[in-house]
Recover the amino acids of this structure.
């Protein structure tokens, strides 16, 4: 398990991504268990980069809106008493974790 839970979650999800080469030579990528996470690109690398960006936004928005995100391996972002606690208000996202204390970021 990675020290950084969000990074680990993202990396785990990206390892399970599925890519297709389309008829026009471009690429599509998706993460099957993350509904709506799909990207397109002229190259495979562009598609991978787009998929990472969309996945990051999907996770942050899901946390902000209180969605139940899927558990990925050892990475569980769901709120539970005694584990990781997340507080979301307006456009501010804060994480209280036994590993790093309190950190926060602004979602724009």
């Amino acid at each position: 398990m990675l020290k950084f839970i969000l990074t680990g979650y993202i990396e785990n999800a990206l390892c399970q991504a599925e890519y297709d080469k389309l008829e026009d030579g471009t690429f599509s990528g998706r993460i099957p268990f993350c509904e709506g996470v799909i990207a397109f690109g002229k190259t495979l690398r562009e598609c991978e980069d787009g998929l990472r960006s969309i996945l990051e936004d999907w996770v942050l928005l899901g946390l902000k809106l209180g969605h139940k995100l899927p558990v990925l391996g050892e990475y569980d972002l769901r709120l539970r008493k005694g584990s990781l606690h997340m507080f979301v208000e307006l456009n501010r996202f804060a994480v209280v974790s036994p590993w790093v204390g309190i950190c926060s970021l602004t979602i724009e």
Notes: The radius of gyration is 15 Å. Residues 81-108 have pLDDT under 50 and may be disordered. Residues 44-65 form the longest helix (22 residues). The chain is about 30% helix and 25% strand.
